[in-house]
Amino acid sequence: MGYREIPTVSFFKVIQNASRILKNPLPFHRENFEKSGDIFKVKLGFGKSAIFIRDAGFAKHMLQKQHRKYTKSALQTKDLAKYIGEGLLTSSGEKWLKQRRLIQPAFHKRKLELLIGTIKEVIEEEVSRITTEKNTDIFPAMSDLAFRVVAESLFGYTDTGNTISRLQYITEKAQESLIKEIRQPYKKWWFRFSGKIKKTFQLTQEARDILTVIIEDRRKSNQSHNDLLDMLLTAKYEDGSSMDNEQLIDEILILFIAGHETTSNALTFTLLLLALHPSIQEKVFNEVSITAEYESIIEEIGQYQYTKQCIEEAMRLYPPAYFSDRVAIEDDTYNDSKLQKGDTILISFYEIHRHQQFWDSPSTFDPDRFGLNIDKKQYSDCYFPFGAGPRMCIGNNFAMYEMILAISTLIKKYHITTHLKEIEIKPLITLKPENAIIKLVPR
Fold this sequence. Notes:
Elements lengths: L7 E2 L1 H6 L1 H6 L2 H11 L2 E7 L2 E6 L2 H10 L4 E2 L2 H11 L8 H11 L5 H21 L6 E2 L1 H16 L8 H21 L4 H6 L2 H26 L6 H7 L10 H32 L1 H11 L8 H6 L2 H13 L5 E6 L3 E3 L2 E3 L4 E5 H4 L43 H18 E4 L6 E4 L3 E4 L2 E6 L1
Parallel strand pairs: 1-2, 3-9
Antiparallel strand pairs: 2-3, 4-6, 5-13, 6-9, 7-8, 10-13, 11-12
């Protein structure tokens, strides 16, 4: 079988487009996909290159069917890990498997049911704090909400000062620094020489010190909270040993970041889309405003099917984890493409979720795509809101419960409007909303 040569974008073209790539690389990617098809290679200088794909079958091949032939790239296992530690998100191989087996039980649905009351309380309190009846950027409020949900439900931590906001600030600054390093690899020497990397390291050390205090306070309290932190402190590996403090901090830092960031992004995008589509927002209101006595919060969440569909459709259009990467650890082939050991591949979930081959009117916000009467097979092979395969997001159920409760709570209380004509995005490690201006008017 003959293999086709992968179309290549020159390093010169990358340099030409450096400033727009730094700000938002997605239009540059779109241009190259439209020109080259569903796969192309970008020369990055210094003999390095990366292959970009928007082929859903190829993505499943790497993430699920042939996942053992691939590993996470240095972008996550080294670049990201140097700032947030070597935890579940950034580790690979045996270490990742060991940590996954240890942490997975904490996210079982039965465990989450024990936390759901705390999640709802935090959401209701945070919603009551939001500025109403004037135009405001809703993203900071959603970020605060999601961060507090993680802090209080998973770690039983109630902030008495500015600890939570400081952790948020540090994680955002570390992400901004890392993005500059990733998108401008030819300037790494300058980031190091200028002291920018050192300054970021100092910030992340401060975050680790904050988490050390939280851990030590829990150990001294001798109280059971029945939360994730309790489980991590008492969990044992197969050999009977426990996690050391550094590993514990790595896992907590990653769960703080991953647990709040993607959720706050998705919540903000959902609210913006509902503001831009009043008739869809009204359907959500009609669903969540039905007065009923529910036996449990989980039962209540289960009744909000259309609300869930709106969130799923928002995550199709604006997937918070908008890309993933892998490195081939052996030669492999997919259809007429040949990959060599050492090749770095970036999978664009953003492009797959907007591909005309997979979706009718892909740019349209249409929650009915995910209706109960729709066969999931129609989209399961081209929809990756939480990734795919064995490394699929461990907290997907937690995030969905939280988002359904947050959106239903907001829509029950407020009519949402916006003067915006379109949604602005800011792609960093996750896909963030920019200038998310809405107005909440009490119903």
